[in-house]
Amino acid sequence: MRSAIVLGAAALVAASPAPQALDFAAIQNAPAPTGPVPGVASQSKVYNAAAASSSATAAVTAVASASATAAEKRSLNERSLSERTLTSTTTAATVAASSPAPTTTGLVPSTCTPTGTWSNTFIFTTATGCAKPFEEGTYCGFINPEDPCAPQPDGYGPVAKPDTAAGFVADPALHAIAKNAQDPKGYAATFKDLTAAVNANTYLGVDTLKSYDVAGCAAKCDTIELCTSFNIFMERDPAWNSDQCSCSLPNSITNYKCSYWGSGVTPEAANNNGQTRGDGFQVVITGSNGYSKTNTTTPETPSGCTKPTKCGNVHDHPRTCIGQHFFPGPFDISLCADYAKAQNAKNVASSAWAKWSSFFGYNPGKCNFFNGFMIKENGVAKGTYCKLFAQQYESSAATYQPGWQGSIHYEVESSWSFCL
Which of 7, 19, 128, 289 has the fewest Cβ atoms within 10 Å of its own Cβ atom? Predict the structure, then answer.
């Protein structure tokens, strides 16, 4: 009876083809890289962890099992394991004391008025002490920066001379700010003084600052879940919104910005050169520095998992692999745990023979071990890749490197394994 059960299970799982090392098509079909939109002063809570977790559970569509036979399992045993706003941060007082007033004050000429086709459809209210009505849901004195001719927020940086896009990019004073910045504690510089900001699939948010505050950016990143790097830069923005405004070519202001990322940041990912706004105002970027703590960050161990182990590369064991999936976004090892648990629940509910085979020391339908890592395409972070295994392995067994696939180069960072 025992031999019939084991042989039946082995024959059933052997029919499943061994999966390829990685699903490169899924990686290539990921959404286009994103980042902070020029003109947006602050953005937070970009990553929806609950929705990501749901997608991890939904990734399980069928019963999956390893294809190792009972005999192969014995040799596998021998290799098993032995066992939102920055001003509330600590730098706020220093910034307020040392920074100039924003250069937006009084910059909009009185002759600038909305064009005749525009009308304000917002509902206004009044309050005691307010000289003018203000939009409901805002506050006394609020000016909506999206209104035609409205002054744009912040602008604490120096304005380049000449006040042109080319003058901004070439301004030696702005370059000196970036070059002389000190690396923050716990972070390593990955690039300095580029003329583009980071775009990647691992975007977590952005803040506009009162100074080129590298230490403040690091402190804020430390408070953001999954944040392991940041990009600080200077952005040339219009002094007022010229859309539907009689004054079409505004002067510029300079904004200090810091964006946060759930991966490392690389020079290859610094591909956001700005944009054209209104009737020709050029938003451009300079003094862009990247800092990362990715290589020194240990992910939080998901509930129900043990033995977090850093892997040099990727685990690729086709005969014990029971599933793999790619999730665009920041590096989030909890997605792999959710995916593994959902696969186990699916297999337990659907496969009686797998339950029986577990009595004999091996269950080809149960994920006992998973490997999660950040996959990068041509140097740009794409998302979390998860691989599930019925067998546990030492970190030394993680030897696979994706490398070149045609004209595209793939590499791995933050590769970790856990046991269930």
Answer: 128
Percent of the chain with pLDDT over 70: 83
DSSP 89: S
Q: What are the two backbone dihedrals, phi and then psi, of residue 344, each rounded to the nearest 5 degrees?
A: -60, -45
Overall pTM surpassing 0.85 (yes/no): no
Last residue of a domain, one of 277, 296, 315: 296
In a domain, 156, yes or no: yes
Total structural domains within the chain = 2
Identify whether 137 is part of a domain.
Answer: no
Q: Are residues 282 and 310 in the same domain?
A: no
- Output the CA–CA distances (angstroms, integers) from residue 44 to 85, 88, 259, 341, in the order listed: 9, 14, 10, 30
Quick one: pLDDT at residue 318?
Answer: 93
pLDDT at 76 over 50: no
The string of pLDDT tens digits covering residues 270-297 is 999 998 887 789 999 999 999 999 999 9
d(Cα 248, Cα 334) in Å, to the nearest integer? 49
- Tell me which residue range forms the domain holding 8: 2-35+48-83+299-419
Tell me which of 271, 296, 321 is where a domain ends: 296
d(CA 294, CA 288): 19
Tokens 């977590």 appear where? 204
CA distances from residue 257 to 35, 154, 282, 321 in whole angstroms, order as listed: 12, 10, 17, 43
Write down the pLDDT at residue 354. Answer: 52
